[in-house]
Amino acid sequence: MKKRCIWCEGSDLYRDYHDNEWGVPLHDDNKLFEFLILEGFQAGLSWSTILNKRKAFREAFDGFDAKRIAAYDEQKVEALLQNAGIIRNRLKINAAIKNAKAFLRIQKEYGTFDKYIWKFTDYKIIQNNFQSDKDIPATSAISDAMSKQLKKDGFSFVGTTICYAYMQACGLVNDHVTDCFRYDELK
């Protein structure tokens, strides 16, 4: 039996996410944008809630196409507020639209969002060596700096805890515990 991070043992969906996505270094702008939006919606909720609604989110938010989301109007916001498949929170929906616009500006300025977001870790994966889930922090100096810069650049729902979770999800940091089979695979 494979040894995993303890947090993923709640469901097959969670284990699959842990085994195949969490902590894998992402450099695809569309995926980086998807995770940024999903992490914002996760604020105050569990990640399993988001994973269970991920397919509905993809459908509701046009496959996380930033150009389409940036053009959403009040009518689209109202439609999203009626969609029981997603988190129906006006502030988070409006933040997704605002973040799409900021994301597009960053792409234009940097060429890719990937270049922008990975600069926070000097374009390297931060390799942590945590023995237990209890040792893993909720924030770091880098997530603090990332949050501050993202807010300055027009993003919202990007507090330091969200940024750290984003770094973990997108592989900017390897926070698999050292006895998890994925730890060495992602080193």
Explain how this protein is built:
- The chain has a single domain (24-185), classed as Endonuclease III, domain 1 (Orthogonal Bundle).
- Helix content is 56%, strand content 2%.
- The chain is built from ten helices and two strands, in the order H-H-H-H-H-H-H-E-H-H-E-H.
- It has a two-stranded parallel ribbon.
- The radius of gyration is 16 Å and the shape is globular.
- 33% of the residues are buried.
Q: pLDDT under 50 segments (min length 5)?
A: none
- Report the radius of gyration as a whole number of Å: 16 Å
Give the overall silhouette.
globular
Q: Helicity, in percent?
A: 55-70%
CATH class: Mainly Alpha
Tell me which CATH architecture applies here.
Answer: Orthogonal Bundle
Computed structural class: mainly alpha
**Tally of discrete structural domains:** 1
Strand content: under 5%
Widest sheet: strand ordering? 1-2
Q: What composes the largest sheet?
A: 2 strands, parallel
Average pLDDT across residues?
Answer: 97
CATH topology: Endonuclease III, domain 1
Number of helices: 10
CATH superfamily: Hypothetical protein, domain 2
Total number of beta strands: 2
Encode the helix/strand succession as letters: HHHHHHHEHHEH
Distance between the termini: 21 Å
